[in-house]
């Protein structure tokens, strides 16, 4: 690839560097970025999140996301994941 030197001008993640050195199809399914390791939200989890949001959205002076996280039945969800899913919904 004669234009590979252009790729060296920009910061890369470790997964991108691995692809550059070993070939662009070298990553196997499930490897690479952490985004691929985040479990998707099921419809039941989305419904529960929606119900918890409507329950705690009028919380005065409190942290809505912290209240939702404490009552979310699925453990292991991070604050960032919950906020991102609420924005997406």
Automatic annotation (TrEMBL):
Biased composition (Polar residues): 23-36
Domain of life: Eukaryota
Annotated segments matching region Disordered: 22-42
GO annotation, cellular component aspect: replication fork protection complex
One Gene Ontology MF term: DNA binding
GO biological-process terms attached to the record: DNA repair; DNA replication checkpoint signaling; replication fork arrest
UniProt xrefs under Pfam families: HTH_TIMELESS
UniProt-listed InterPro entries: Timeless
Protein name stated in the entry: TIM protein
Species: Climacteris rufus (rufous treecreeper)
